[in-house]
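Good morning C.,

I know you're traveling, so I'll keep this short. The sequence:
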Amino acid sequence: MLEGGHGPAVPDELVLNRDFRGRTTGLIFYGAQLVIAADDESAIDAFGVETRKHRGLRSFVGPKHAVDGVWARVHGWHPQPVIVRPEQPLYALVPEALRAASPEVEVRPARDDEAELVAYHSGAMILGELGYDPRANRGAFTGAVRRAIAQGLWWVWIVDGELRFQLNIGPRTSATTQLQGVWTPPAQRAKGYATLGLAAVARCLLAKETTLSLYVNDFNTSAIALYERVGFSRVGTFATYVFP
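The tokens, ready to paste straight into the viewer:
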């Protein structure tokens, strides 16, 4: 049994599936992308049907079993993906596992006057990972970054006007806070900045958050090594399908 609800004046929709006893067996979010959490095959069946109402999605993302399951049910009519990331290790960090990095560095939430710098580097990361450049629509992309900065969601390490490290905060629940957009500019790499920056941000966030989490492409061995150096442990596998 599906139950859906729209937020006020926005096209996003969160849909729950319940069994005959009323227990939630899965949920799926339709926005710019599809995000799913479901282990139950009947829930994935129902979401496969529901997805027919939501065309034009940029991507599917979530736990591998659920994402692959939805794709198997819709691939006959859905546009084909331009990028498939079939194995994306999911990592989590608990406070006691955080490995201190020395020396400590001055990470902080980004300021509004740094939005152009942050957007430039965020766009470069997206171009490299997903093959499209959001900076082509510069005003809209920078505006989205500016709104995230206003909410305190972007963290940076900037020295003498040069970015050394940045990341942004994604979805939050009572169980975890997801980190996204972990990035060191190419000219600043191989200097240990990513380890120092990530450890410092994690230390700040874990003062309030229960755990931190993130996922990464399985072929990005340098990023995986970074996360494990800081203390993240693998807890699952995601998959992502990106559409034109």
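Safe travels,
E.
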